[in-house]
């Protein structure tokens, strides 16, 4: 395989590369972007849930793909022979592997890295891009739609029907996808690339709202009657999108139960977009400097250490208002005298966490607040690494059973004489009956940060501080900080 002439001849025989630009073909022969690997019978080539982006072409042998569904059943979903390929969904959109592929016998596989894959795929006139899109629609699109919050409660059969009517569209850097104030006519899912959403101020100045990367969705508002685009969406790079015209939803769902569920999910998403009123004047949405670093945000969570008695009521109240029992409040941060800017989210104007997320798990609402969608988070920790202020962290999210056990452990009834010991005895008896081998659902590490007590009319830490030591303030009000 090392011989260039032999390798070139092999590539020429694969339908994927029949009409590929000569410059791309030359790059294929670069060992930095393409390699070969042998597998023995039973070897795992890719594993479901893993976060890698290589694209595979089977040169010799047979392989099979298996997917473990939510019900715990593992099913055969595809079989591959020489010349077949797999891994295109992860290469295009950085989604976790949707299935496990195993070698049925001795196999030789060509592996193409994501850099070369994107170069080949972005040439929409090539045979490579056309074949990849055809196969993507056939076996991956319905699965990919499941990552969009809009389809959280949609059945697999309906997702397949929507996928059949979806449009795969691409835009070049600088193209305008949607214009503020114009009729909104479709829902979009970003397959790859970066989109900027912005609005115009009364003086004509562009105000950036957010950036959308792989697996983000937008346009859910188009499913409301008479909807218009709230933002102008512009391609910041070459972008590939799934376009779902609003009329498709009427055709697929009609006025049935699934249509009602879709509308309910739209209502949830639009409510998230409205955010929580923080009453921050537009004039205060500016960038600040702390030392040599810029805080690109709105208001900060400030703790007056002179007033704080370290009672921990702020953390306890944060635990109480989150169902998973994981506190979002951090009592670390930037110190200025007795005042400390807690490491709570600054809701950056250019959110690096959002730009780093490839799973559509980070969104911004109309108030400028950044939210993490737990259902979309895969625990890759890219947002944690990219946040310049250390406000995002990975945490073990409790399952419903674990959260219930935690609430029971914290119950004030346990401290009452006579009653407390009875409760503990009952819990011990239950454990003895179930045994240590009782089935447990392992929680997963996911990204968390301060969410401003989303859904509540107050911020629990501020409301429950008995000393008035914690508050939301504009960072410019703090001594030593300058605009």
The gross shape turns out to be globular
Largest sheet: 4 strands, antiparallel
Task: State mean pLDDT (0 to 100 scale).
Answer: 77
**What is the helix tally?**
15
Low-pLDDT residue spans: 276-297, 432-442, 478-483
Number of strands: 26
Strand arrangement, major sheet: 1-8-3-6
Q: What is the first-to-last residue Cα distance?
A: 61 Å
What structural class do the secondary elements suggest?
A: alpha+beta
Proportion of residues in helical segments: 25-40%
- Rg calc: 26 Å
Strand percentage lies at 25-35%
Main attributes of the structure:
alpha+beta; four-stranded antiparallel β-sheet; globular; 483 residues; 15 helices
Question: Please, could you describe this protein's structure?
Answer:
With 483 residues, the chain is α+β, with helices and mostly antiparallel strands. 28% of the residues lie in helices and 25% in strands. A hairpin with a 5-residue loop joins strand 22 and strand 23. It is globular and about 75 Å long. 33% of the residues are buried.
Secondary-structure topology with pairs:
Layout: H1 4-12, H2 22-28, E1 34-39, E2 44-46, E3 55-60, E4 63-68, E5 74-80, E6 85-86, H3 88-93, E7 100-103, E8 107-112, H4 114-121, H5 127-139, H6 141-145, H7 156-165, E9 167-171, E10 176-178, E11 186-192, E12 195-200, E13 206-212, E14 217-218, E15 232-235, E16 239-245, H8 246-253, H9 257-274, E17 287-290, E18 293-296, E19 300-304, H10 313-320, E20 333-336, E21 339-342, H11 352-356, E22 362-364, E23 370-372, H12 382-386, E24 393-397, H13 400-409, H14 419-434, E25 444-448, H15 460-464, E26 470-473
Antiparallel strand pairs: 1-8, 2-7, 3-6, 3-8, 4-5, 4-7, 9-16, 10-15, 11-14, 11-16, 12-13, 12-15, 17-18, 19-21, 19-26, 20-21, 22-23, 24-25
Helix pairs in contact: 7-8
